[in-house]
Amino acid sequence: MNIDFALLRSFVVLAEELHFARAAERLYIEQPALSQRTRRLERRIAVQLFDRDTRNVRLTPAGVEFLNDIRDVLARFDSAVARAQETASGDRGTIRVAYTFSVGYETLPALLTGLDTDSGLQAEALELWEKDVLDAVRRRRQDVGLVRYDPDDPELASVLIRRERLALAVPHGHHLATLMSVSLSEVSGEPFVIIPRSVAPGYHAVIEKVFARAGFAPKTVANAVPGSRVMTDLQRNNAVALLPMSAQRVHPEGVAAFLRIEDDFATLPVRLIYREDSSTAVRAFADRAQQIAREHHWL
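^ that's the sequence the OP posted. Answer follows.
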């Protein structure tokens, strides 16, 4: 059954006013036009909605039931239109976010919490290896990626949202475990556990640049994948590792301390990447992420 929404809205107004002149005034139409709409609606649904004479207008029992249902239908329709408009404008939508392991310590939770304060944008997060994050965004399987370096890809926008201090993770029993901070030059002779280039080439390149700024190439004893494997390798080899300071939030077993790195250049970026041809909702997410970064004084 095809019914013009104008007929339904006119019915609701007349049912509320129970007076043709007042209802017509609210609808900005002439009273005869309102009478025509009412009769047309009753013919369309084959139900008498009003009892009316020259002095009074009353809803029939069928009209009362119809009013309750149609109010709900119109409210849901108006809500659907508003949500569609918000999505088209970028004020609403579900954004698929791929992220690397270390971003999940602190940056991702802060972004998701910040989004939760808004009524529109929402996020679905998926942890992937760094190389897979980039591939997923390029292939449109994910809308946004959070990685530790700039991929320098003409198809991808790359926005810096954080520079995070690096820390030196040391295992229990290590001779540095009682210190609060060190400079990298002081640990140039220590064996390091470093995440392999094969799973995180960008992350690996950033760490290599930090070592280069410190003036030495580290002695590597293990190439662990991110997560608990790093901590296991630290203990087994009595080695150390450069990790983002936020890693201490997960209280990894086997790590005695996270020493602050005194060198100002010892930082690790967090970049938000998305396709240059992304939707307005994705761009709104990127704008909100930058706002959250400013609120947290990340830059």
